[in-house]
Amino acid sequence: MLPVAACATGSIITQLSLLLQRYRPSENLQNQVFDLYVMKVLIVEDELELSKSIVSYLSTENYLCETAYDFNSAVDKTALYDYDCILLDIGLPDGNGLRVLEFLKRNRKADGVIIISARNSINDRIEGLNLGADDYLSKPFHMSELSARIAALIRRRQFNGSRVVEINELNIDVTGKTVQVNDQKIDLTRREYDLLLYLISNRNRVISRNALAEHLSGENVEIYDKFDFLYSHIKNLKKKLTAAGCTDYIKTIYGMGYKFEA
Ligand code: CA
Known about the structure:
The chain folds into two domains: 4-157, Response regulator (Rossmann fold), CATH 3.40.50.2300; 160-260, Orthogonal Bundle (Arc Repressor Mutant, subunit A), CATH 1.10.10.10.
């Protein structure tokens, strides 16, 4: 167990770093974007290159990434800080990642956990889920897939498993996949719906054009120009929503991407 003082210090550091994040303008000064809702992700992964790629990909999506390369530092960090999502490798040099999960549960930590593991055995998967992991992703995976899983996990946690998301005049039934503006049903295509939910699940965060385009096209490589594809879906989605009397919440952040601002 950590001494109380250490926990308190850790919590103060977390608060300070969050405050700094809140009031620190984006690196990209031309946009002067203040990111108010920074999602924190801990990447527990001993493969250095993979860890670096994940950090670099998720950073472009405005996640605040921290890394742990072994079991002990993973336990230390999770003891001191709270994360929105922990990406957890099972095969660590000094221990089994599943034991990190046990540690979290024993200490009633509520961080979301996605297991990322080369071991695609059904036993690891079952044990991980039984121990309370939220999701499981087998290596190798595409970064866009990982990002979509993280967004889905955070969305589930943000929406508290609720089936209906309500933002002012906008009402989305996640189970029925229906969208209403002031009780008027809006007909969206599957891609427009996905786009809307992805933006809302990252509410008030700037999502890069690239991340959105990849989210939208998936592994569909035959799409000629993924940005044209994205622009036309964004345009149609905005048109359908505003035509029904919805505020134009989807903001274009010049040179960066889009943000659902509400
Ligand atoms: Ca490993």
